[in-house]
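Support reply, case 0932

Customer input (verbatim):
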Amino acid sequence: MAIAMAILVVVALIIGTASATFYNGYRRSAKVTEQLKAYQAIDRIMDQNIRNLIPFRWSDELEESRLVFEGKTDSLHFVTLRRTYGNDRGALLFVRLRVEDGELVAEYSSYPRLPWEDEGKQEYAREVIAKNVRSIRFLYAEEVDEEIEFEDTWEEDDHEAPPLAIQMTVEWNDGTSERWLRRTAGSGSNSTFGNRQTSGL
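Our regenerated output:
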């Protein structure tokens, strides 16, 4: 009887250990899967929207032409180009990225959504890109004396066009962080290919 009980205890310990190992492995796998989904979603935003960011101007209430771009440390408002299909409302997409209640959120509008107008006046679609986000931080690249420098904010009064590139750092609730850096489509005027020679004619 004692031997049988000992065998049962050993079997129970083996089953319990195996179950705990399986459960811990499942939790780690689920966490990695969620992280990969978040990274892929952020990659999509950076590749489809930031890469295709363009300079776009719109008149304000005083009929002054203004650049539709607002680059803050913790939020970004811009205009991007997208592919159009039969029922789409045009190739322009107005986008804002920010953190709201621990979530990285993208807000989209096919109609002009302007950073200088009040929130309630503008309609938009909302997408949660990633959860468990503590903060985001943007940096904006510009060329100064043929060198690339990064700024914490991008003020319209100091710049007539969008930045050359945008870097976004995402800090997660567990203290880790990741960075994404993409060049913008609006920086094409600063690019040359090959050796350019000026004709004397």
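We compared this against your earlier run and they match. Two observations from our side: The longest strand covers residues 133-144. The helical segments are 2-50. Please reopen the case if you see a mismatch on your end.
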